[in-house]
Amino acid sequence: MIQIPMTPAQFAEAGQQLKAKQGITLTGNEGQLSKMGVTAGYKYDGTHLNITILEKPFFVTEQYCEDELKKFLHIAA
Questions:
Q1: How many CA atoms lie within 13 A of 73 on its CB side?
Q2: Which of 9, 40, 41, 72 is 20 to 30 A from 52, comparing alpha carbons?
Q3: pLDDT for position 49
């Protein structure tokens, strides 16, 4: 699981960036996102964004998926 400290403004910006650059749309503070065979659940509680990998291709590790999500969000892996 990834837990990222984030203000509401940063969460809104991350959502805009994911949509613009990756075609991923966050719908509200909780839901799922999918790209390239990876599905993750996310929940934003007002101070932290929590992301959990739910499904992934068998040939990639969960760590790889988490690192790629961090790159999408511009967070150091």
A1: 25
A2: 9
A3: 93
3-state secondary structure of 51: strand
Q: In what order do the strands lie in the sheet with 30-35?
A: 2-5, 48-55, 38-44, 30-35
Tell me the pLDDT tens digit for each residue of 4-50. Answer: 899 999 999 988 988 888 888 888 999 998 888 999 999 999 999 99
Q: What is the 3-state secondary structure (H, E, C) of 5-21?
A: ECCHHHHHHHHHHHHHH
Q: What is the pTM of this model?
A: 0.84
